[in-house]
Amino acid sequence: MLAPKKVKYRKWHTMRKNPKKVGPATRGTTVSFGSFGIKATAPMRIKSNQLEAARKVLSKSIGKSGRLWIRIFPDMPYTAKPAEVKLGKGKGDLQGYVAPVRAGTVIFEVDGVAEAIAREALRKAGTKLPVKTKIVSRI
Q1: Would you put residue 71 in left (φ > 0), alpha (ψ -120 to 50) or beta?
Q2: For the whole model, what pTM was predicted?
Q3: What percent of the residues of the chain are helix, what percent strand, and what percent coil, each to the nearest 5?
Q4: Mean pLDDT for each consecutive 10-residue tract of the chain (139 residues)?
Q5: Which of 32, 62, 64, 80 has fewest C-beta within 10 Å?
Q6: What values do phi and psi take at 35, rounded to 5?
């Protein structure tokens, strides 16, 4: 799974609860490296294990001839308290890392395969992600 090698602060502030107030993405919204990509249509936090599951499906589907780019990286830590623990007593322990994604961000890109194979691979990968996605191509 993807995780940063080193972090300056082990626990972050929670950030904004309503990501819709932040607005759509302005950077990383076009297919830059490959021919086809998968784009988030809603704001969401994607965990590193969800990203890894989608990457595995994509790499298996496109085979050795295809090339894959991951356009997001989970660098934001998230914490959780154990079950049945009362409130108070500080913040929970580190559980993993998430990638905050805004609407319009390209998550994966593929190249080197036929259009039908690329679209099917990206569709399968989109089912592994917690965010609604659409398949986009280079114009």
Answers
A1: alpha
A2: 0.91
A3: 20, 25, 50
A4: 94 82 91 97 95 97 95 96 94 95 96 96 97 94
A5: 64
A6: -100, -30
